[in-house]
Write a structure and sequence with these properties.
Elements (H helix, E strand, L loop, with lengths): L15 E3 L10 E6 L10 H13 L8 E5 L3 H10 L5 E7 L4 H9 L3 E5 L4 H15 L3 E2 L8 H8 L1 H8 L6 E5 L4 H13 L4 E7 L33 E5 L1 H15 L5 H16 L5 E6 L17
Parallel strand pairs: 2-10, 3-4, 3-6, 4-5, 7-8, 7-10, 8-9
Antiparallel strand pairs: 1-2
The chain binds 4'-deoxy-4'-aminopyridoxal-5'-phosphate.
The site of 4'-deoxy-4'-aminopyridoxal-5'-phosphate has 19 residues, from α7.
């Protein structure tokens, strides 16, 4: 039996879960990394840890400095968790529309939250962050939307975990993209390591990857308004654009049939994985990422109106 000391030792090495109750075509085996088993409840705990270390080790702030980051929530929770037990102050700039639960968790972990207008999107939050950086001394923004440490986190952690757990037998990797760090880092690791693997990126309607205009969507945590510099579109073997309706339908199915309490980005990832399963060779191994939990979205009505 292992005794864990320090919350940071619980980040990563999340369970890999095989879908067995929801019927799958082509005798496909579908696996999901249950990232909501991380101690802050999402895939972004991995990133928070890395960004804090990166900021201190590279001298961007002192050990008593301030990190300021525009975030839809989960990266904030990951960063706030990483800062627990340190003297670093964290401030998050969050568009109002994002889940109240996430904002409450960030505050409870000791962070300050500054809200920006929903209509201004993530670009509005990024602009506000720039203003705060000028006002506050010894401050730095890890800038998850441009920092190569973002994809590198997943190249170093999630990618190797998947290859080890599935003994390299991965035919298709499917993941949603918000900043794109999870997809890009993992996809790059898999293509560098395995002889042949298809990497499939997932977005909600209202995201730009399939050539659409940016617009509102209810699926939280994924969707791109612009392409961050570390994204390499040659890794987009397929792009799946999933409607909110479909994402929420699968959230309910995953909950009722598999007992998986997942958030809407996981519903979208699963919808895309099923589309891959329909065209996959019989017996293929498809792996995806369930980034966070439905408990984070109860007041936003994640289980309402989806039946
Ligand atoms: N799902 C959820 C719920 C998230 O919060 C995020 C992070 N924005 C993602 C998926 C996508 O992760 P990434 O930013 O690495 O693309």
């Amino acid at each position: 039996m292992r005794i864990y000391k320090g919350i940071h030792s619980l980040i990563g090495n999340t369970p890999l879960f095989e879908i067995t109750k929801i019927p799958l075509p082509n005798k496909v085996r579908l696996f999901a990394k249950l990232e909501y088993f991380n101690p802050g409840g999402s895939v972004k705990d991995r990133l928070g840890q890395e960004l804090l270390q990166d900021a201190i080790n590279n001298g961007h702030i002192s050990r008593k400095g301030t990190l300021i980051e525009p975030t839809a929530g989960n990266t904030g929770i990951g960063l706030a968790l990483a800062a627990v037990g340190t003297d670093v102050t964290v401030i998050f700039v969050v568009p109002e529309k994002f889940s109240q639960e996430k904002q409450m968790l960030m505050r409870s972990l000791g962070a300050k939250v500054v809200n920006t207008r929903t209509e201004d999107g993530m670009l509005g939050a990024i602009a506000k962050t720039k203003d705060l950086l000028k006002e506050i001394p010894d401050s730095y923004s890890p800038s998850q939307f441009s920092n190569p440490a973002n994809p590198d986190t997943y190249y170093k952690t999630l990618g190797p975990e998947l290859v080890q757990e599935l003994e390299g037998k991965i035919d298709v990797f499917v993941a949603g993209a918000g900043t794109g760090g999870t997809f890009m880092g993992t996809a790059r690791y898999l293509k560098d390591t395995l002889a042949s693997v298809k990497t499939s990126i997932v977005e909600p309607e209202g995201s730009i990857l399939n050539g659409g205009d940016p617009g509102p969507h209810r699926t939280e945590g994924i969707g791109m308004e612009f392409l961050p510099p570390y994204m390499d579109t040659s890794y987009f073997d397929t792009i799946h654009t999933i409607s909110d309706k479909e994402a929420f339908k699968y959230v309910l199915q995953l909950t009722k049939l598999e007992g998986l309490l997942v958030g809407s980005s996981s519903g979208a990832a699963f919808a895309a994985a099923l589309k891959e399963a329909e065209t996959a060779k019989p017996g293929s191994h498809i792996v995806t990422v369930f980034a966070d939990s439905s408990e984070r979205y109860l007041s936003a009505g994640i289980y309402e109106g989806a039946e």
